[in-house]
Amino acid sequence: MFTLIRYASQDLLYQPGRTLLTVTGLAVIVFAYLILVGLSGAMADYGRHADVSQKLIIIQANVADLRHGFVDDDALQAALDLPEEIVQHISPLGVRTMRVNEYVLSLFSADVADWEVVYELNLVAGHWPTAAREAAVSEGAARAAGWQLGDTLRIFGADFKVTAVIRAANVIAYSSVWLDRSETEQLLGSRRDRQIVFIQLAPGSDAEAVRRLLEADERLDGRYHVYFQDNLGQRYADTLRDIRRVTRVVNGIILLTIVFSAYNGTSLTLAERGRETAILRALGFAPAFLYYFLLLRAIMLSAIAYGLGLGVAAIFLTIYQANAPLLLLGLPLSLQLTVNDILWGAALILALAAAGAWFSSRRLVWRNVADILRE
Amino acid sequence: MDPHHPTPPFLIEANNLCKLYQRGREQVTALHNVNLTAQTGDFLFVVGPSGGGKSTLLHLLGGVDRPTTGVLIVRGMALHTASETELTHFRREHIGFVFQFYNLLPSLSAVDNVALPLLARGGSHQAARRQAEETLAQVGLARRRDHRPGELSGGEQQRVAIARAIIGRPALVLADEPTGDLDSATAVAIMQLMADLNQQLGLAFIIATHNLQLSDYASRIIKLRDGRIVQEK
Lengths: 375, 233
Prior knowledge:
Helix content of chain A: 40-55%
Number of helices of chain B: 6
Largest interface: A-B, 25 and 29 residues
Largest sheet of chain B: 6 strands, mixed
Oligomer: heterodimer
Shape of chain A: elongated
Strand content of chain B: 25-35%
Order of helices and strands of chain A: HHEHEEHEEHEEEHEHEHHHEEHH
Strand content of chain A: 15-25%
Order of helices and strands of chain B: EEEHEEHEHHHEHEEE
């Protein structure tokens, strides 16, 4: 084994430029594979943070994007008419996509008093808006746009001062700007600025019974759905399922690429060194020795490439997550590689590289020595 | 002598050796009813024009190919019926090869090239390397042991190839046009080296060549033409 490793190492070092080129080519494939694994894992985690709560939401039915929906007065009244003992808060929420300075992001509007109790916003810095033309920005938006306390936001032609940086426990609002409801009414008028109605139920209430009661209310008349709030996150998560399937297919293709790369690399080595292979056979080396040599060579190349690809992927993910986290529908996609991902990736890639080397070498190392010497 | 494993009377016994090749649709007769014997310590030349069957005969004697028909026994082993595994073992233990174009591994140093046959036998790397250094000294290349083939002259490379062929003390060294790629002075030096090793070590050498000027070194000469032995002296 030591002899094999020694000769494989010497062989790889004999043409360092070529080895580097092969390793780089494989490392790019490994990098792409690991990033996609990270993305796929992020998609699996996407929306899982939505907490199981005693919150219901009313949203318009048959609207693909709830920002285009509107909860009318009748539907709101149906919620307001629920018995007081089962309801703690009812809070209409405006959701819009707006240009704020040069950034396009989600603008939420609700009564400031509801921000903590209903929407579970936490104050990270500054103070909640108390005066006119004050706004809060989420950590995600502040990080993406570089906003700080005291900065001015230009929204729909008016200037707002950032008084609070907030953290949204509910990831729907990860990257957003928040205004008091009275501010948006002044700013935008009463133009259908009620996309969701949140209903915070009292502890111990039978949320499912309340949900059925509301859906049966004739004022909703099938035009609205009543969901648990968790369903909203779930709705987003569902949209990712298909994308995740696509990443799995792409990952499969990438893994096949590794097999073909190893196959090509070994075939090329054998084609160029057919005579050397014959000489070694003539000297009495068994075909199995040469076969293991080629296998080990391919595995060593892949292992180096995997280490390089993993290192670059880890650096890339660290920098990317710190500076420009990926958002999908306003929610963060947290790309990360687990130890499990790394070990599985290594095992798969080394095994597939060995398979590629095996496919290409099994025929050539068993060829008649005299035939090769005659060529 | 071990009574259970008596030394066979001849190192090589070949009877009616034939070798046919398929070249496209055409069948080519490379060797036709060749009969040959050789003894330990022989310094035998196989001469003749290109395409006469010299290399084919060496391939058969070295166990890298099998005859189409005929009987070939080398060092007591019936090569005409041996399996691939048996042939591999036979080459490893009993044969040393020297080729026209040296056929050294370019990625290995001279000493590592020479050590290869011992490693093929499963020897330790250190012991093989030590013996390779001694063998390189024997062919006058002690100072060039760490050089790669690309850094050596043609004559030096052929000396390395000869050292590689003799390091395992094989019964038979087969040299296929060993001076074919060398200038005449170097060719004489290489031939002298092989003759000296033949004398010192008692190894049998069979050398295929078309350079008749070197035939003075031979203890026997076989002339091959069109796959047949046309002269033997």
